[in-house]
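Appendix C. Worked example: Tyrosine-type recombinase/integrase
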Amino acid sequence: MDDIPNPRDPDFNVAYADAIKRPKPKAIMTPTMVDMFLGSAARAKAPRSFEDQRKWLLRLAKHFHDAPAVIFEERGSRGELNKWRAQWKHSPKQHDMAGTHAVRVLNWAVEEGLLSEHHCHRLPKLYQVDRSEVVWTPSDREAINAIAPEWVRRLLCVACETGLRPGDLIKLTRASVEQTPQGRRLRIRTNKRGRVAHIPITQALADVIDATPSDRMLILCNASGGRLTEHRASEGLRQWRDKAGLSQELRLQDCRGTAATRLLNAGLSLSQIASHMGWSLRHAANVIEHYARVSPSETDAVLLKLADSKKSKA
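Step 2, the predicted output written as structure tokens:
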């Protein structure tokens, strides 16, 4: 204890005044913290992403229903959070997803002053995957095109030519098409990153766009001409993939590797492709190199362009 009962040092008085004015974290319960986050502007914007986020955070709130949020300021909370997500250790992807959403709400709580800190940063992950070697080859596409209905063929083509995620593919309309001095391009604000992507329209993509009925705005539709959902797009292609006897590893998202090669051929640099895809330069290069090696008809030209693009970044 200070033996000076009435300190008169000006610096002490300034520090004391600052300390008593500093906002203190509110004593709220964990479920309340979760509810506040889900009602905030920081929550996921895309409907499907929000539903996933809500599902995991409600599980978190249920598990810690009688715990005040301030327990996450204690070092031991890291172990408690790891015990909670260990319920899904049989499924590495779900295990990691639980931790990702929990940390997101805790980061938000710190930013909002509800917590002074937390100890759950950089939780170890179980799910490790490298899908750089999973791509749709020309022979894969031919197998689908030989048996699938038109709406699936159009979906696969546009996915392979643009590299867009399912949530962005299903919202493409005629209004997304822009004229350029050299031809046409697609202009779309992506769901995940919120950035505007400009994608060259290749001849294959132009054929799909031009074949779209004049009374339809959406470029991609379901079998009955209605609006596609992300789930139906992914599931539809999966069903015809299985009927064609192709690898079960192939998914709609893996069309992005094919698209990366198309974009390189269309004149985009490696850094532009990586930015568009949301990949690292190394991953983009690995995907394109693998695609070229499993597509003999394109090997020489693609690898030459890839080498030139790598040199320009050196």
